[in-house]
Amino acid sequence: MIRLNKAPLCLLLATLLGPGQAARADNFNALPEIGTTAASTLTIEKEMAYGDAYMRMLRASMPVISDPLLSEYIQDLGHRLVANASDVRTPFNFFLIQNREINAFAFFGGHVAIHSGLFLHANTESELASVVAHEIAHITQRHLARSMEDQARKSPATIAALVGSMMLAIASPEAGMAAIHATTAASAQGQINYTRSNEKEADRIGITTLAKSGFDVQAMPRFFGRLADQYRYASTPPAMLLTHPLPESRISDSRSRASQYPAQKLNTSERYQLARARIVARYAGIDSDAAQDWFDRQLKKARGVRKDALNYGKALVHIDARQYPQAHALLDPLLAGDPDNRFYIDAATDLDLYEKQYDQAISRLEKALKANPEHQVLRLNLADALQEAGRHHESISILNRYSHDHPDDTNGWYLLAQAYAHNGRRDAELAARAELMALRGQWDKAIKYYIEASQLVEMNSLDQARYDARIDQLRLARSRVADL
C-alpha cells in the first residue's frame, strides 16, 4: 500500500496563515443559522475551499492510510451516520491516519480524520461510531466557524490566522494550541469553556445520530468514561483529550441522554472486527512478534466472528513476514467458510502474488468482480495483479476508468503511473504523477510534470491539448489556494 511522506507540520500553519491576508466572505450564506451568525465569518463555499486545501496538505504531511479496504470501511461507517444526521450542508470525507495516539478530528468541508489508535481502544463498532458521530456533529453545527467568529470578536487576529491556528490545533493539539494563543488575545479559560460547550452539543447531537443509525447509544458514555478513567492521572493525556476534554459533567450528561433510549443488544460487527485486526497487523506500529502476541492474547477469550477476525489478523502478519505456510493454515479455512468475504479475498490475493501465482490471483479477482463489477477494492486489486503478471496494458484500461471515477484516490494514480512507466508511455506517466502531486497540494511539481508531458507528445495533438488544459486548471487551483 502507499505510504505518504511526512513533512514538518509547521508548514501547514505557514501555508494557511499566508502573508497576513484576511479571508473575506462578501456574500452571506442563505442557509438558516444554528446557534450563531457563523455565516458572517465564513460561507459554506469558503469552508469547503479551506477544507480541500487542508486535506491536500495532510496528504503530504501525515501518514494517511491509503489501504483500500480500510478506506472503504471507514467511508461506509461514516456515511451510514451522515445519512441519519441533521443539518448536513457539505459532502463528507472520512479517512484514517496511521498514529497510535487516541484521536479524531473534523475540519472544514466535511472532512473527518480518525487515528488508527482509536481501533485499539474501541472494543465495538458502536464505540468507534460514537466518536465519528461526535465529529460529524462538529461539522454540521459549524463549530470551527462559530469558534472563529467568537475569537474574532475578542481579538484583532485575521481570519486567515485563526483558520491556520484552529485547523492546526485539531490535527496537532500542542502545536495548535500554542498557535491559538499567539494569534488571539482571548483568555485561555474562555477558550476552554467555549470548547466544552461545543463538546456537549456534539455529544447530544451525536447520540441522536447514533440512535437513528442503529448503533448502541450507550457506547458513547461507556467509551468516553473508560478513556477518562484510564488517563485521569496521566501526565501526558492523549491528543483526543486535549481537544476533546472529558470532565465528569460531560460524561454524566452523555450518560443521562443515552439512558433516554431503549437498551439494545447488537450482534458483533464482523467488518469492524476485521478492520480492527487489519490495523493491528499492519498499521499499529508494532513488530510481527508483538502483533502475534496481541492476537494470541485476544484469542483466549474470543468466539465466533471475533475469533475469525483475529485469525485473519494473524494470517496477515504471517503474509507480511513471508511465512506463507502458516498464513495458508489460517486463511484457507476462513476463505472456504466465507468465499465472498472481501477481506479474505484481498489477503488470499496477496498470498497468490507473493507466491507468483499470478493467474490464480487474477482468476480469483475476476470471479469476485462478476458478483460486484464496480467494487473499488476488487478493481484496484485486479489492476495490481495484472501489473505483477506483466499485463500492463490491461491494467491501464482498468486504472484509467478507476481514476476517472475516483480522482481523489492516490492509489489509482500511483498504480497508473507505474503501469505507464512499464509500458513506455513517459508522458502519461508524468501526467499521473502530476495528479498525485496535486492531491498533496504540491502545485508547482504538478504543473512541472504536465509541462514536461506536453513537450513529449506531438505538437497540436489531442494529448497536448489535454495536458495544456490541465496545466491551466492547476495554475488556477494554485492561485485560489494562495488567495485563501
UniProtKB/TrEMBL annotation:
It comes from the Bacteria. Pfam families: Peptidase_M48, TPR_19. The active site is at 135, 203 (proton donor). Its EC number is 3.4.-.-. Keywords: Hydrolase, Metal-binding, Metalloprotease, Periplasm, Protease, Signal, Zinc. Residues 70-256 form the Peptidase M48 domain. It is found in: Periplasm. Binds 1 zinc ion per subunit. Residues 1-22 form the signal peptide. The keyword Disulfide bond does not apply. InterPro entries: Mito/Outer_Membr_Metalloprot, Peptidase_M48, Protease_BepA, TPR-like_helical_dom_sf. Its cofactor is Zn(2+). Zn(2+) binds at residues 134, 138, 199. PANTHER family: METALLOENDOPEPTIDASE OMA1, METALLOENDOPEPTIDASE OMA1, MITOCHONDRIAL. Belongs to the peptidase M48 family. BepA subfamily. Functions as both a chaperone and a metalloprotease. Maintains the integrity of the outer membrane by promoting either the assembly or the elimination of outer membrane proteins, depending on their folding state. This is Putative beta-barrel assembly-enhancing protease. It comes from Photobacterium atrarenae. The lineage of its organism: Bacteria, Pseudomonadati, Pseudomonadota, Gammaproteobacteria, Vibrionales.
